[in-house]
Write a structure and sequence with these properties.
239 residues; alpha/beta; Rossmann fold
Length: 239
């Protein structure tokens, strides 16, 4: 590991600890004096051992995802965490004689049920999906509005992610600490509009167990800082 990589890890560890102490999404932008290096820094982080910093890398949110005007990035994040969780723990692929005991099955099913409930809440509550329902009759519209608002109130129930990370740590023994799930956002700087939607959409994601790493050019990041006041709460990792 180079001294530059060690410095990057130290900054990232500080970022995680700082964000875990407050509410709100955990987002870090990776920048460089030379814009073309920001993608390479993300690649270097991926290749570092999990025991150096407790990171578990999920599938990325890509430029194609950012270009979708109606994308729900809250749900997209949960789907990626669920895929990592199920794949790494081989859930659904175990031989019958290698399965969990009854208590373990009940514990795992409880986690999965609560996680699915959070996904449903995110699907209903974000992003403003009521705009297309105004043609409904008043009673139906009122019911749908109430259901949507109830779902939004439940978006704070992200402690299930802490429990899933603890379960993952217990079963995999890969990290020195309970891991943080990492969602890379690749090539977001190629679509400032899509990246803006992503940041606005994830404003309701209150979890210190998920880290969004976004390589970004200085020009685009400065534009976001000027246009989105919420950007002041996020971290800039310059490499």
């Amino acid at each position: 590991m180079t001294s530059r990589d060690a410095t990057m890890l130290q900054r990232l560890e500080w970022t995680i600890k700082r964000h875990q102490a407050v509410r709100g999404p955990m987002i870090a932008f990776i920048t460089s004096a030379y814009d073309y290096q920001c993608d390479g820094s993300l690649k270097n982080l991926k290749e570092m051992r999990a025991d150096v910093l407790p990171l578990q890398w999920c599938s990325p949110i890509t430029l194609v995802d950012l270009l979708q005007p109606d994308a729900n990035y809250f749900v997209a994040t949960l789907v990626r965490i669920e895929r990592l969780f199920n794949t790494r723990l081989q859930i659904g692929y175990r031989e019958p004689d290698r399965g969990f005991n009854v208590n373990e099955v009940g514990r795992l099913e409880g986690l999965q049920q609560r996680f699915r409930r959070l996904k449903v809440s995110a699907s209903l509550g974000l992003p403003g999906n009521m705009s297309g329902r105004k043609s409904m009759d008043p009673d139906t519209y009122s019911y749908e509005l109430e259901r949507t608002e109830t779902a939004r109130m439940e978006l704070d129930n992200t402690e299930i992610l802490d429990e899933m990370a603890a379960y993952f740590h217990e079963k995999m023994h890969e990290n020195r600490d309970i891991p943080v799930f990492v969602i890379p956002v690749e090539e977001g700087y190629l679509s400032p509009v899509g990246l803006t939607r992503f940041i606005e959409n994830m404003g309701a994601f209150n979890s210190g167990r998920v880290l969004f790493l976004i390589p970004c050019t200085n020009t685009v990041l400065d534009l976001l800082l000027k246009s989105l006041p919420v950007m002041q709460r996020y971290t800039r990792l310059e490499v």
